[in-house]
Amino acid sequence: MAILTLYCAVSGHAKTLNPQEERRAWKTLLSRTAESPLPETLNALRQYLQTYPDGDQARHARFGIAETLFNDGQYEQALVYYQALIENKDGVYFGDSLLRAGEIFYNTKRLSEAKKTWQRALEKTPGHSLVAAEALYGLALCELSNKNYLGADKIIDRLLDDFPSYAHLPKVRELIGLLRFQEKNYTEALEALEGIATPHALLFRGLSAFNQKHYLEAANLFHDLEASTGAYGEIGSYFKAECFRMAQNPVLAEQAYDEFTRRYPESRLKAYALAEKSAFLTQLGKLDEALAHLEMVAGLRPSADLLAYTLYLKANVFARKGDSSKTLALFDQALSVLPAKSMDLSAHIRVAKAHYLIQGERWAEATATVQELVADTAYHPLGLVAHLLSGIHASLRGQWEKALTAYETAFMKYPYGPLSDVAMGMMLSAYYRAGRFQELVTHSNRIVQTVGKNFSSSNLFWRSYSHLLIAESYYKLRLYSEASQAYQETLKDPALAPLARLYLAWSRYHEGRYSDSIRLTKQILASRGYSVRERASAHFLMAGSYFNQKKYEPAIQTFRSFRQSFPNDPRVAESWLQEGWAQQMSGYPGDALEAWHKLAKLFPQSPLAQEAVLQEGKLYFQAGQYAKAAKTYANFLSLWPDSPMASDARWSMAQSHYNSGLFAQAIKAYREFADRYETDARAEDARNQIMLSAYRFAAQSRDPKQLSRFVELYPRSQQAPEAQNAVARIFFERKDWPKAIEAFRKLLLDYPGTSHSPSALVAVAEAQEHLKKPEEAIKEYESLLTLFPANPLAIDAAMRLGAIHFNGKRYADAARSFRFVVEREAADDLKADALYNLAVCYKRNRDYDEALKIFEQFANSRASDPRRVGALLEMASIHSSRSQNENAVAVYQRILAFHNLEPAKRMSVHNRIGEIYRNLGEREKAIEAYSPLLNLKPANLEPRLLGLAQLAALYEEVESWEKALEAYQQIESSGGRADWIKAALKRRREIQAFLKTQKGAQTAALFSN
After folding, report:
1. Residue 440: its pLDDT value, please?
2. Is 207 part of any domain?
3. How many other CB atoms are there within 10 angstroms of residue 379's CB atom?
4. Which of 221, 409, 571, 637 has fewest C-beta within 10 Å?
5. Average pLDDT, stretch 213-238?
6. pTM, whole model, 2 decimals?
């Protein structure tokens, strides 16, 4: 009814149709409204339509009104006109009107009407028209909005099958990316959205990377999204902080949340940001600041979930402060305000409370807390932790059945994960401690598994002339091979042959057949049937052909003979230009400069003179003579300031200043270029060069203030990360550790995607070490290992991290760091160090089985490493400490089998074997172990003498006096320590005296009998 009323109103004021008058009126309207404002355009179109409602151009007027209204966002008014065109089934605008109507319905959230309209467009228009393609795209949008992802995917498949080129349209790629995101196919979502710079695409690229746990890549994408306006910028800023949170970098996360709250103080996400920021402030030890932020959250009237989370975070702060009663009261208060549906948060709070109680050795209360968790959320993943704690409590009280039941429930009831191994270990430990060894064995065994034919030939001239025309046409079309064939047909007519020959020569030239063009030009110059102009053309062509054949000497001579023969030819100026190029290519830059200089002097009004001067500058530029190049370009600008080529001269002058390191002059020249030639394609490059020159100027100065000023002026430039890194490095080299840390953290926070991120983390860690803050250094090293585990720097970081933990006697943490190196590609010597250190850590941590396994691995894989013997000695030591004497002796025997073993170590090993047997009371084996020392050299080494002393004592014990005396004699003659020699001599004499006395007694006894 609205459309009918409109037509009635228009018809009431209609003129009698005069087609000629209407056309004039239409042309007048188009010319007057080309640059008119929107209201004037609409009034003109409506007045035209009112005057000529049934005219030939009425449909165009209606569509014009509709489009104008649509583009102004007046959707409902535009819809009236589109629907009028649709109902009249206008042949020109029917499909476009359906598309627009559907778009209006879609933009105003009337998805059902949008879908019906686009479906009608698809059914009422040709199947392979662009209208059909756009209709399919619209239908896919509707399905996506209705969350019918399978339906949207099928429509997209149909769209790409019927219109393959649509696959490259950004809007289609964006739609595909959103679909892949909804399917949780984040890799394909990222591929589809790559290179699309819309905020929506950036958001979903960031979310895709985030969901893949590529937090640094996601942070970089959200950082780009921050530059958007409105909600997108807000979301980008918040999610950037979330990325740092997930990467567990407290410093960057805290700074990112702080930046978000300052930029968006009224954001609905502010409370969440403040809460998360407080958590990281707590980690950083800024407890009062954390509490202040939590109070700010409470003042924002948070939801029950967020309030509970805030109380939980407060409890963590007071726990750090050592206020036990306040901590527990806050945990209980958090649980009391938490909705029943918030099971995950409830579980986390209970586990945190139980952990706190355990730290205070309040096992009964901790057990009661975790039992509440198991009772309320029986299959929650944290239930495993609860059962573990219950088991530990029972074990401490010797209640083995309860402990075993708790550990078995933790192991069997929940999906297998890292803690499952803990549960199994604790369970088996309980069996052991309860003395139920057979059950332990049984339970562990159960668990572990293609022209010419159309022309008349009666008149040869016309046929030839036709060929000439054809040839000329091909020539104009730059189809030179076809032109040459037609010129050859023209050569058959004597009247046209001379001209055809000249033209053929030029065509061959353009084909690149320079030998043919030279042959033809020589024929022309040797003939009399050519005008001066034609001969000059041939002569010039010959020179050009030589040039393109790279026969520069004949080319130079031909250009010179051309000027002598045809001094008034308009191409003389060009011959100087070409000769200059030939001289340059021949390696005579001075002659080239002379040729171009003569051109500029003889023909100053010719554009070629300008080209010649530019070539002079270019030649200087290429030779690295930037000062002469800049002077030449400045001369050009003084002679021809308004020349079309002035922009090239000004650009090249700026480049010359830049390359010569005169960055202040370069900035001035680039700025003049950008201001003077705003529409030049290089204007943006000039602005970039201003920025780059500023960077180079700052970098050249090595002044942190200038570099920081550059970052402040050009924060989103490609050089900003380099400048910020340079600032940080300068402070680092100056050993100004606090400023270096601050500068590196700014680099990481503002440019998380920079290639300097890994080295920045390492530098911060090293600076913290210099400040004697090993715990802070540990956080940075661990952040590097989390974010860049495959980066070469990660290996050195892990080694350093291991050393810090080792020095702090945190041997398990040190072992984890050294194992990181062992399990990755690394330099062989570094890997060897890590493997050896890993074994030592296990030993220090009393994990003797792992220590033995790693020492064995080291000894077997590092045959040429001097520490191989040390590894075996460590193994033997462990075996000895565990009373595994046979294993210890076996390891010592492996050491003795080494042919290049140092004498002192060989002697010590014999001593250790002997000592083992001596302690076991096995004298014969002990004597056998010490005996090789008698023949080992050098004789004066202490380990040998010590062993010989033990050997002598053993011989005394078995009353093998002669061998004992021999052992003491070896000590006396060794040249060793004087006190040992003296003691051996004394003991030898004592034995001899004893033997003499004994012999005398025996003799007396004999006589008495």
Report:
1. 55
2. no
3. 9
4. 637
5. 87
6. 0.58
Which tokens hold the place of 420?
A: 């499952």
Q: Give every CB contact of residue 499 below 8 A, 6+ residues apart in sequence.
A: 468, 490, 534
- Clarify whether residues 411 and 361 are in a common domain: yes
CA–CA gap between residue 997 and residue 1004 (Å, rounded): 11
Question: Using an 8 Å Cβ cutoff, are 96 and 131 in contact?
Answer: yes
The last residue of one of the domains, among 497, 522, 557, is: 557
Q: Report how many domains make up the chain.
A: 2
Domain-terminating residue out of 537, 557, 577 = 557
For 182, 700, 746, 918, the CA distances from 711, given in Å and listed in that order, are 38, 15, 11, 75
Residue 380 covered by a domain: yes
Give yes or no for a contact between 452 and 489, defined as CB atoms under 8 angstroms apart: yes
Spatial contact of 94 and 124, defined as CB atoms under 8 Å apart: yes
**Segment holding 444, helix H or strand E:** helix 437-447
List pLDDT tens digits, range 680-727.
Answer: 999 989 988 888 888 888 888 889 999 899 899 889 888 899 999 999
- Check whether residue 501 and residue 552 sit in a common domain: yes
Quick check: 971 and 981 in contact, CB under 8 A? Answer: yes
- Among all chains, which residue has been given the structure tokens 């990325």? 243
DSSP strand E in 302-421: where?
Answer: none
Q: Which domain holds residue 411?
A: 340-445
- For residues 512 and 419, state if they share a domain: no
What tokens appear for 488 in the block? 């050859």
Q: pLDDT at position 428, please?
A: 67
> Which residue in the block uniquely carries the two structure tokens 């020589």?
522
C-alpha 540, offset from chain centre: 57
Q: In this structure, what token pair is assigned to residue 495?
A: 């009247």
| Token pair 């340059």: residue | 584
Considering the domain boundaries, does residue 757 fall inside one?
no
Tokens of 434: 């309860």
CATH number at residue 374: 1.25.40.10
Ramachandran area for residue 735 (φ above 0: left; ψ -120 to 50: alpha; else beta): left
In angstroms, the Cα distances linking 293 to 180, 258, 349, 548 are 39, 10, 20, 76
Helices (H) and strands (E) in the chain, counts: 54, 0
What is the rounded CA–CA span in Å between residue 754 and residue 220? Answer: 9
Q: Are 441 and 467 contained in the same domain?
A: no
User: Quick check: 895 and 872 in contact, CB under 8 A?
Assistant: yes
Token pair, residue 389, equals 């704690």
pLDDT tens string 52-100: 777 767 778 888 888 888 888 888 888 888 888 888 776 678 888 888 8
- Rounded to the nearest 10 degrees, how much is the dihedral formed by the CA atoms of 728, 732, 735, 738? 50
Question: Could you give the percent of the chain with pLDDT greater than 70?
Answer: 90
